[in-house]
């Protein structure tokens, strides 16, 4: 989760398109599977969680913070994820920081009742940037200046292939994009544009 949080933080504060491409390419080239695939899915809008909604973030914050303090902080900051990341009073002795794939897989399988418990446990284990990234991942509102097209261009740069080749197979691929990364790293043949991946 730490590498993903660092990526989001750097992307949010990097205005130049080519610098964003470099950040994305470097992350995709160094992050392990399936973390990089889940990161790609979140950046391109292909990752959603049925049972995890922004209301859980508010409930978790109101359970841990004074409701008036939280309300005033949220009013001042204006962004739910940023507010909670900044004011979250972590409990000492929290569990280890989760991996991105652990967060994604847990949220995909969790019931509505389990989401808030998972969320609180992870928020306790993460630093401010990690909490912000977790909450942005959960809500799907990354807003770090990366379009799906830019992410595909970074993949093309990673694999030294034309972006049109990425576009041709993209619709047949599914997160966490194992076949796509294997092809880009020359470990397998190009995925078929017809077969779901």
Short note summarizing the structure:
With 197 residues, the chain is mainly α. It contains 12 helices and no strands. Helix 1 crosses helix 9 (128-139) and helix 10 (148-159) packs across helix 11.
Describe the structure.
It contains 12 helices and no strands. With 197 residues, it is mostly helical. Helix 5 (67-77) crosses helix 6 (80-87). The longest helix is centred in the N-terminal third of the chain and has 14 residues, at 17-30. The protein is elongated, with a radius of gyration of 18 Å. The two termini are 25 Å apart.
Class by alpha and beta content: mainly alpha
Helix content: 55-70%
How far the N terminus sits from the C terminus, by CA atoms, comes to 25 Å
Number of strands: 0
Q: Please state the CA-atom Rg, rounded to the nearest Å.
A: 18 Å
H and E order = HHHHHHHHHHHH
H/I helix tally:
12
Shape: elongated
Poorly predicted runs? none
Characterize the main sheet. Answer: none
Mean pLDDT: 92
Strand content: under 5%
What layout of secondary structure does this protein have?
Blueprint: H1 2-12, H2 17-30, H3 35-43, H4 54-64, H5 67-77, H6 80-87, H7 100-109, H8 112-125, H9 128-139, H10 148-159, H11 163-170, H12 178-184
List keywords for this structure.
12 helices, single chain, mainly alpha, 0% strand, 197 residues
């Amino acid at each position: 989760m730490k590498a993903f949080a660092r990526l989001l933080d750097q992307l949010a504060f990097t205005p130049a398109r080519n610098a964003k491409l470099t950040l994305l390419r470097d992350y995709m080239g160094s992050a392990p599977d399936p973390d990089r695939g889940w990161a790609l899915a979140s950046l391109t809008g292909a990752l959603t969680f049925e049972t995890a909604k922004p209301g859980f973030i508010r409930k978790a914050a109101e359970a841990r913070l004074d409701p008036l303090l939280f309300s005033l902080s949220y009013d001042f900051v204006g962004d739910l994820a940023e507010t909670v990341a900044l004011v979250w009073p972590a409990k000492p002795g929290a569990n280890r920081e989760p991996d991105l794939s652990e967060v994604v897989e847990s949220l995909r399988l969790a019931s509505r009742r389990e989401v808030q418990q998972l969320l609180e446990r992870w928020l306790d284990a993460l630093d401010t940037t990690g909490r912000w990234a977790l909450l942005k991942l959960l809500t799907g509102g990354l807003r770090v200046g990366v379009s799906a097209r830019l992410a595909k261009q970074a993949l093309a740069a990673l694999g030294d292939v034309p972006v049109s080749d990425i576009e041709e197979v993209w619709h047949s691929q599914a997160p966490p994009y194992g076949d796509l990364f294997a092809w880009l790293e020359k470990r397998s043949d190009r995925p078929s544009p017809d077969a779901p991946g």
